[in-house]
Amino acid sequence: MPLHENLIWLLLFLFAVFSIYGYRILYAQALKAFANSARIQSNPKALKKLNKKTKQDTPSFILTLVGVFLSVSVVFSVYKYLESNRINTTSKFQAIATTAMQNDCTTNCSVYGITQDQLIGPQLEQECCYGRPDYIFTWQSNDPKVILKEHVTTSGIDAVWLGERVQEDVESTILVRNDMNSIIRQNQNKIDNAYKHALNITPSMHASFAFIHLTIAPNGQVTHSNIILTDINSVEFKNNLLKIFNNLRFSSGPFQTMEFTYRVRLQPIQSE
């Protein structure tokens, strides 16, 4: 169940609970009115008993009203904070999905007979779940009818194309670069060593993942890199990580300039 629906049910529950206490407030007022009646005034014993009961109930009514106010204030404050955090997280993953869409369109838009300008979006199709982001952003063109879905999680990005192909194969002498993951894995030890060095300097540093966006020229050099999403809280380690990726060398050949997003996974280091 989405977070905002849970909060709404909580508010309804609080309203129901405190409505019962509201009934007690009305009941106390009725007791006071009854105590002031001529009939009860003429019976000292009954009047003493009634006044005692009224005094016992009234303080709890005041505390109840204070409790209602504080409870509702806390619920709305938490909701405002969580909603702001959700919007910021969605914006970050939308930026990742947009970059992935541009990369996918470079190789697939012509297959479906469209250009990137014809794709309208993104539309947020799926948003789940708080603490474990899982998003689907959708772009579509109207003529011809083509839909592109970018499924983005902290584990990676998957693209799904829906529509009629106008050509099965893109007739081109330009090769598709496919050595990105293998080259990066060959340099994983450099990433691990930089991570260990950063922890030795700052033992309290937090880092578990980073999405790094690369631009690779036809000659295999990285012409641009930046971190688009991470939980690393060390500026020095982030800069060292970018230096490692900037120094990577990929295959040279008849390739297009390619943009590529890679997820770096940083595993906790066991103390010796």
What about the largest sheet?
A: 4 strands, antiparallel
Distance linking N and C termini: 43 Å
Q: Ranges with pLDDT <50 over ≥5 residues?
A: 169-173
| Overall number of strands | 7
The helix/strand class is alpha+beta
* CATH C-level of the domain at 174-272: Alpha Beta
The average pLDDT is: 76
Number of helices: 6
**Residue share in β-strands:** 15-25%
CATH topology of the domain at 174-272: TolA/TonB C-terminal domain
The SSE string, one letter per element, is: HHHEEEEHHEEHE
Give the neighbour order of strands across the main sheet.
1-2-3-4
In short:
By secondary structure, the protein is an alpha+beta fold. It contains 6 helices and 7 strands.
Report on this model:
There is one protein chain. The chain has helices at 3-35, 38-41, 44-108, 180-186, 188-201, 235-246; strands spanning 120-128, 134-141, 146-153, 156-162, 209-216, 222-230, 258-265. The chain has 272 residues and is of the alpha+beta class. A hairpin with a 4-residue loop joins β2 and β3 (146-153). The chain starts with a helix and ends in a 7-residue tail after the last strand. Among the domains are: 3-87; 174-272, 2-Layer Sandwich (TolA/TonB C-terminal domain).
